């Protein structure tokens, strides 16, 4: 907080598409004391005309009071929000009693509480001591928050959630120790989800490198990434989220003499798929089906977007990635599509590239060429009471309830009798491909019937064709011109 991230909704979603991600959920985090409804409206306003793919929003809870609770209800019932993020560190963290109440409110609403799990009090005491000793550089960051400081908060979040029978989602879970806690909790039947970031998988922390500062830290333990991948493979952890939050080099440098002032966050949205493939699938730790689950399907299920998203089937949105495992690319800030001026994965060779990416039926990466269209995406409501979260037994058959139309009676006891689960039992079935396999639209042919015509949409597209790096793409009919498609 206090400084702006480098990528806006246009840059961020363009980069997502370029890397093979066809849908994002971004955070709307209000400053402490501000309305969460306002934060939501503000995010919508900044996103709607910018996004190149569909999106939803997680809303941040940065304080706790009656007004916030009322606004949560309004967000769930009227605005299509089903997830809220609470912080256990930073100046806007909630204390245990507040977390208890916020989790309870989520459970009543059928929403999913997400946590930034680190012990903020321990971090600030450790930071004071380190600074007093003269350890002021970026190496102080990880020293102030060793693995157990994260694991303690993960455990505490799980304990609090269990007291109110709420599910809980541990965002950007970064250490083996924290994974173990989630494993224990899931094995006694608690509904806990853990998300891992590509930075924890693709990079070994270097305490001297200011550009890697993120929280929880990218740990310097070289075994950490492998353990996280094994947890992802065995369904101890369920998904990968980018936690994309970028700052320019000079913004990072502003904290070079006081590590507590380095803005936290690194890139992830563009390279998420490639990094997980390279480190997980290419190395043989994760199989291809599990790759689909942890990068796409599980997120769609947890946030109640399935089977509209996260699935290739008749009636689902045509958001499809065609992945070529035989091609390679080298990640570099020189060629990435993010606004940020460095890339934490610089120089990594990745086997596997998104050769074609289709967003809502439109080919937006065509044989490796990016054709993102600003404003093409739209906000998608996430209905409450996701069956995969609140009604696991019937998750495969129950249709998502309409957002806001909460059937409290049927859901009331869903979480009060935890059931023993075994690793892998909750892993998602591989989406079944319909027999009429999806054809790849040709870049030269006419638009297939039923496909959305951007020229008919209400979005303004006068400056939206992303042509800056693609001189080879010819646009015969410019935006606003005749009605034929762009490709
Ligand atoms: Zn966080």
Describe the structure.
Helices cover 31% and strands 13% of the residues. The chain is of the alpha/beta class and 487 residues long. The protein has a single domain (9-411), classed as TIM Barrel (Alpha-Beta Barrel), CATH 3.20.20. Strands 1-2-3-4-5-6-7 form a 7-stranded parallel sheet. Helix 3 runs parallel beside helix 4 and helix 4 packs across helix 7. The chain starts with 8 loop residues before the first helix and ends in a 76-residue tail after the last helix. The model is unreliable at 398-487 (pLDDT under 50). The structure holds zinc ion. Zinc ion is lined by residues 116, 171-172.
Characteristics:
487 residues; alpha/beta; 7-stranded parallel beta sheet; 4-stranded antiparallel beta sheet; 31% helix; Metal_Hydrolase; hydrolase
